[in-house]
Amino acid sequence: MRSLLTFVCALLGAFLVLSLLSCDGEVPVDPDAAVAEAVLSAKAHPATHSVTGQATSWYEGPTGAQGWLHISLSARLQPDGSAKGNFHWQWRSRDPGGRIFVKVECLAISGSEARMVGKASQAGNPDNVGKWMGLYVKDGGEGRGAPPDLIFQRWFGTLGAEAIDFCRAPQPEDPVPRELTAGNIQVH
Predict the structure, then answer these.
(1) Is there a domain that residue 36 lies in?
(2) pLDDT one-digit tens code per residue, 7-25
């Protein structure tokens, strides 16, 4: 019995070492767990304004690529004007899709609309870590008669100043937001 226990412990230890080495020394983060943790934190530390939710939308890109876009988000605007939170963006298609986990650095809320931008802290493509991405959402309200929630995202790459401008105000080149096919975004 003791030798079996020793074997199991050695096997678990080897698995842990290999897991950490495969992540270049970084402990992987489950995006859904991070969003859930941020929601719990938001409840414990009330903010001035917040945006939370999970959603799915059909995406047709400018190059003709099509696929499902899944987003989880939780961000809050602090009384001092700073933003805390994150969003996880994942695109699934027959073509190579992608995923990005973004730490929110700017959040602007006006009525039922929210704009947020931040830098990718994790990405399916390691070259995208540290690059900027923006998200616009509009809460259509609750209940059967409410209009659908709306969303669009924008990739800024290394253009941090443009990302912050997008967060602060609508831009002339902003696309028409698309309807969510499932999920619920709440802007408070």
Answers:
(1) yes
(2) 444 444 444 343 433 444 4
